[in-house]
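Lab notebook, entry 213. We have the chain sequence and a SMILES string for S-adenosylmethionine, and the next step in the workflow is to get a structural model of the bound complex before anyone spends time on docking refinements. Request logged below.

Task: model protein plus S-adenosylmethionine, output structure tokens.
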Amino acid sequence: MPVRSRRIDASRCGVASFLYHPWFCRVVCRLGRSRARQLAGWVDEVAVHGATVLDVGSGLGQVAHELRGRGHRVLTLDPRYPPIEGGPHLWGSAGSLPLADASFDVVLFCFVLHHMPAGYHLAVLREARRVARRQVVLLEDTFASNYELRRTMFFDSLLNLEFARHPHANRASGGWLDLLRDAGLGPHLHWERKVTAFGVFPMRQALVLGTVP
Ligand SMILES: C[S@@+](CC[C@H](N)C(=O)[O-])C[C@H]1O[C@@H](n2cnc3c(N)ncnc32)[C@H](O)[C@@H]1O
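Result returned:
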């Protein structure tokens, strides 16, 4: 099922969502640099050296920039934002990737899927599986109790300044594993742990892998 409409591209990522000015985006990028380094390090742990990576929902492209610094070849794809640091970019949507089968070692979703309605997740992951040669990598905000879910929803809205249209389509790690299996991938929970996002906000995050059989 293609996910093309602007309504589905509902994520308004960060302060930059309503302040598209390049200067402001650069400030946001600078503030998010250490986060991007950390995320890229996590992806680097599971990707083969020099992997080709499709970064779906790349936002301002900081994670892609850091991954390039680690020797990976990254194409960013986002319906809304261009990568601030440059690099090859496709305007597009996760549900219908204009790319050949098995054309990237890794298809990466870095805190993207819970910004899309849950009913689209399976179609999006099937499309990712088509394009991936080795792995689909998910970084997600997860939860282990109703309290953690509420807390995550609150901080996620706050960090993204997205209070009205955020679908909050979070899943527990087991839910992501089931979904990857349904998409035809070999699911594996690489880790799940409590973190302090931006050094302040208590969250639970997981790195979930779907291996192409
Ligand atoms: C919270 S931001 C994450 C940005 C980046 N991955 C990061 O972690 O810094 C979510 C991103 O998902 C993108 N997005 C929303 N719907 C999408 C869709 N259907 N296909 C691809 N990207 C989408 C948004 O434009 C936004 O850039």
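Notes for the group: Residues 3, 8-9, 11, 13, 56-59, 62-63, 78-81, 93-94, 110-112, 115-116, 160 surround S-adenosylmethionine (CB under 6 Å). Worth checking against the assay data. The mean pLDDT is 89.
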